[in-house]
Amino acid sequence: MGIFRTKSVEDAIASTDEPGHRLRKTLGAWDLTVFGVGVIIGTGIFVLTGEAAGTRAGPAVAVSFVVAGVVCALAALCYAEFASTVPVAGSAYTFSYASLGEVVAWIIGWDLVLELALGASTVAVGWSSYAADLLDQTLGLDVPGWLYSTTPSPTHPNLIAAAVILVLTAVLCVGTKTSARVNAVVVVVKLLVVAIVIVAGLFFVKVSNWSPFLPPTGSRGASSTPADPSLWQDLGVPLGTFGIGGVLTAAALVFFAFIGFDIVATAAEETKEPQRDVPRGIFGSLAICTVLYVVVSLVVTGMVKYDRISVEAPLANAFRAVGADVVATLISVGTVAGLLTVMMILMLGQNRVLFAMARDRLIPSWFSAVSGRTGVPTRITAVTGVVVAVVAAVTPISELAEMVNIGTLFAFVLVSVGVVVLRRTRPDLPRAFRMPGVPVLPVVSAVAALVLMGFLPGISWVRLGIWMAIGLVVYSAYGYRHSRLAGRTTDVRGERAEHRD
């Protein structure tokens, strides 16, 4: 069938050298690792720890971070093999196109667009509140309420969130290397803040606060609020707050904290030696952040009893609770700085996915033009920046936050399956990195992602289905007919045959 036509790996690599659509290779393993750390360390470590510990897992939230990290590590092995075999912009979209077919690639590309745009918009809204709070606490400046809103709407827009998105869009348009330098500076600030949290927090840890380490199922603390029913609960599987079910539910929540390592793969085409450096960037950033998450969660739950942890600002308020206001202020500064790079790299990933889709003509090819001066696809960067800014300014997106997680996990499933498919259909391809344990580990990776998806609210599945249905309509109306592969078939070995009437 035409909708399952695949783009050969050779074609995918050849398309990266087309005049006017060629991205500039400026990144190394260090740049990619810093990109990964820059986007991973953000909302998860500064915000989600409180909700996950206080309402779901207690001190065992450290185990939740490990569970989420293991699921990501399995997927990372798949991403690393694909990225070293197909070093082309687009990440899961491009990998799926080369292994599972065009319609699957479209579905995952459409899914990633929603995931990354919604993620950047969500972070922008949160950043505006943190920035306003920091100005109030440190300088006594009361930011007018009409400038921002945690529940934005067309009549009460979040202008600060929109403004920061537009500024970061301008940075991205200047060039990828410039973006990498800005990111590196901010990452240093974030790591210093995290180090301060760990070192200073150890002096206030009380071992008694870790007891019970895993609160029993059904128990609730003073700050706890019921979690939204997960899909498993909607299907009748008895899962309560705390207990093993709480740990897994928390893992599905803090999974948001790990979103970003896969974005390293979207920059493969801009990497000098992608076969070597992309796997290093993926594993390096994931390992660093997993260790930091586990340690920070243990420190915070050791400082403050899990049932008294602040859901809104767990790290800063934990230090305020023990009288360390200076450290709390530093954490607020780190949060404001840290979320900047999260937004920037989420938008970078989104731009590269759309760029790859435009170059394949599944969306208008006008968007795939690359600036000769900066080596950046400035058209798609500018357009998506404006769209994300508008979404952040006027859309109440808190209820859709789970969509970011379910979209990423869905991508993990397809990439895991794609590794097995490409191993069978193209065993001849050179693979600088080979995932061990094929086909067992890729299958385990796909199943683990599906299980974790089940701990997300059932409504997230409904919303994902609606978005996918809209995407298939768009593909049928435009992408199928305008695709580079329209009018020809491409078998799994990359051999082309023209359609004849």
Description:
The chain has 501 residues and is mainly alpha-helical. The chain has a single domain (9-15, 24-486), classed as Up-down Bundle (Amino acid/polyamine transporter I), CATH 1.20.1740. Helices cover 64% and strands 1% of the residues. It contains 18 helices and two strands. It has a two-stranded antiparallel sheet with strand order 1-2. A hairpin with a 5-residue loop joins β1 and β2. α4 packs across α10 (243-254), α5 runs antiparallel to α6 and α7 (159-174) crosses α14. The longest helix has 38 residues, at 102-139. It is globular. The two termini are 16 Å apart. Mean pLDDT is 81; it is low at 221-227 and 489-501.
Question: Mind sketching the topology for me?
Answer:
Blueprint: H1 9-14, H2 29-40, H3 43-57, H4 61-85, H5 92-99, H6 102-139, H7 159-174, H8 176-202, H9 231-234, H10 243-254, H11 263-266, H12 274-303, H13 314-321, H14 325-359, H15 378-394, H16 402-425, H17 440-453, H18 458-482, E1 488-490, E2 496-498
Antiparallel strand pairs: 1-2
Helix pairs in contact: 2-8, 2-12, 2-14, 3-10, 3-12, 4-10, 4-12, 4-16, 4-17, 5-6, 5-16, 6-7, 6-14, 6-15, 6-16, 6-18, 7-14, 7-15, 8-12, 8-14, 13-14, 14-15, 16-17, 16-18
Regarding quaternary structure, what we see is single chain
SSE class? mainly alpha
The main sheet orders its strands as: 1-2
**Roughly how many Å apart are the termini?**
16 Å
Q: Work out the radius of gyration.
A: 22 Å
Round the mean pLDDT to the nearest integer and report it. 81
The tally of strands reads: 2
DSSP strand content: under 5%
CATH superfamily membership, which one?
A: Amino acid/polyamine transporter I
The global form is: globular
User: How many separate structural domains?
Assistant: 1
Low-confidence segments: 221-227, 489-501
CATH top level assignment:
Mainly Alpha
| CATH architecture verdict | Up-down Bundle
What summary fits the major beta sheet?
2 strands, antiparallel
In N-to-C order, the SSE pattern is HHHHHHHHHHHHHHHHHHEE
Helix content: 55-70%
CATH topology assignment: Amino acid/polyamine transporter I
Number of helices: 18
Transmembrane segments: 29-48, 60-82, 103-127, 156-175, 182-205, 239-261, 282-306, 326-349, 380-397, 403-423, 435-455, 461-480
Pfam families: AA_permease_2
Membrane topology: Multi-pass membrane protein
Subcellular location: Membrane
